[in-house]
Amino acid sequence: MSTKPFPNLDRDEKETGSDQDGRGLSHLGALPYRDTKPVGAADFYFAINATFRFLLRRFGWEGLRRYWTDLGTQYYAPVSAAWQQRGLPGIAAYWRAFFAAEPGAEVQVQESDQAVVVTVSVCPAFKQLRAHHREIVPCFCQQCYFLNESIAAPAGFTVRVAGGNGSCRQTFLPRDAGTPPQDLSEIREATC
Amino acid sequence: MLGVYDFCGHYEWTFEWLRRTGGERLVRQYWDEAISQDSQRHAAELIVPQGIPGMIEYWGHTLEHEAAGYYCTTTDAVYRIDMHQCPSKGFLIRNSLQQYHDYCDHCMGWIGPLLRRAGFVVDHQHNHAGRCWWEIRRADDPTEPSEPGGLAGEHDVRLLPDWIQPAPLDTYRRANDPDDKATILPESR
To answer: Under DSSP, is residue B169 helix (H, G, I), strand (E, B) or coil?
Structure first.
């Protein structure tokens, strides 16, 4: 897999038209993989939740954690490369674009010289899963630590997650900032 | 966080992660248990009790939601889909994403077992370039699949000039299993 930051960016930056709903695609420029529609299909949150449940049953907590870590270091390697190249502004741009493309998300991204803070008021996954009465894997919110940390670490950053179960705060900091380790008890279990 | 905007990318990546972890058998179990029986249980809730009317309702919603380019043909005996622009395979092609050897198998991997539980079988071909067709009939209906244009008329993907690709054409006859396929190589067409 290529680790060049955002291999499609050159092509996508030339897209000046609108998508099928008439909404431009330029707000998605910080994403490594691009679609022709402005937001994803919310039903896919069902599959993400079901995948976690399947892996948890087959391989236990360690197996699910390994899946998240491998996903972050392999599939999302272009994101790591971009964060390494662009630093905190790149992290902020990524999360703004990411949540703009997630249906139903209500999120604020604040950027300073020291950190990027992503405040999730309405997690789009929880919104969809709860609206359809799906049983949510209790450790669902742990993905946001293990996946994001595996993307951030190769770029020289780390993440701390607090809250969960539908709303949370994710703080991205330089790894050399002396931040205490993630306390997993700070991440709430998901309830239906 | 895993998002749904690039879902097809990490979904496809997951197939290969599973294959490397537990072989093809684990991939098949994932498609059936996690996708068919868990994620897509709303499809089963429509199709198992209602049959073809449930298929119309399920795929009408889902394919519109995913912005697919498709055409459906329905009679009392058959439900046919002509997929002209598969949104998920299209996403993978546009982004040059391929980890697993045949992403297209996942559809039969979850739809096939669901239709078996509903009492249906599938005739299907996919060309690995974002085009495919499906004809779904009751398991006790011995009708052969239609000839090109015979059921869907001008909307039949087999009539498109680029239907035949350099890649093999995967063919299923009265199937419910993702491994129950014949591969038609370019030189034999």
So the answer is: strand
